[in-house]
Specification:
The complex is a heterodimer of chains A (117) and B (114). Chain A is mainly β. Chain A is built from no helices and 12 strands. Chain A is globular, with a radius of gyration of 14 Å. Chain B has no helices and 11 strands. The chains are: A mainly beta (117), B mainly beta (114). Chains A and B meet through strand 10 of A and strand 4, strand 5 and strand 9 of B.
Chain lengths: 117, 114
């Protein structure tokens, strides 16, 4: 079974600075998807960025980028120019590439990010 | 487009009571899911469905039941509520194929069992 580990329960960063959230995972599969979700106080789960394991290029979405290290099974999220609206819980998630009965998102326990004005 | 709609947003149940959490999506998504999120934890899969008439258990199905009679609706039934079912419940959906492999989540239902 796949597992996702987020070793930083809480992180804080000064507004406009850069912060990196860590995520490691364990899997025996060679193809899969990785995601970062943001959960603000409103509870809504918002997709931040996704990465296909078969792509070597790291995904980027505006101020958000990932450092995907497949051999190390590491998937960190970098937030540049942090803004007050970035304050939230961030969840790393894994999904198998194959579609079928075992398909599901496996979540880490989350990292609470605080932005210091 | 309303996306994924969950009702109610909040509910307090007494031990032993039953209730149904409603989930509706208007995106014609094949796959639908129910997750629960306990305090300080990530989401865990309760049940999921790959299409109308097809459902399957996830990691934590005990104490719950689901049905999928239409593509749009995927209600979650709690029978004999217990304090251990106090949690936030999320419904999610996605298309089966194509580039849209992202999940769309509802805004959650906060359930307290006392």
């Amino acid at each position: 079974a796949q597992t996702v580990t987020q070793s930083q329960p809480e992180m804080s960063v000064q507004e406009a600075e850069t912060v990196t959230l860590s995520c490691t995972y364990d899997t025996s599969e060679s193809d899969y998807y990785l995601f970062w979700y943001k959960q603000p106080p409103s509870r809504q789960m918002i997709l931040v960025i996704r990465q296909e394991a078969y792509k070597q290029q790291n995904a980027t979405e505006n101020r958000f980028s990932v450092n995907f290290q497949k051999a190390a099974k590491s998937f960190s999220l970098k937030i540049s120019d942090s803004q007050l609206g970035d304050a939230a819980m961030y969840f790393c998630a894994y999904r198998s590439y194959s579609i079928g009965r075992n398909e599901k998102l496996t979540f880490g326990t989350g990292t609470r990010l605080t932005i210091i004005p | 487009n309303a996306g994924v709609t969950q009702t109610p947003k909040f509910r307090i149940l007494k031990i032993g009571q039953s209730m149904t959490l409603q989930c509706t999506q208007d995106m014609n998504h094949n796959y639908m899911y129910w997750y629960r999120q306990d305090p300080g934890m990530g989401l865990k899969l309760i049940y999921y469905s790959v299409g109308a008439g097809i459902t399957d258990k996830g990691e934590v199905p005990n104490g719950y039941n689901v049905s999928r009679s239409t593509t749009e609706d995927f209600p979650l039934r709690l029978e004999l509520a217990a304090p251990s079912q106090t949690s936030v419940y999320f419904c999610a959906s996605r298309l089966r194929t194509g580039a849209n492999y992202g999940y769309t989540f509802g805004s959650g239902t906060r359930l307290t069992v006392v």
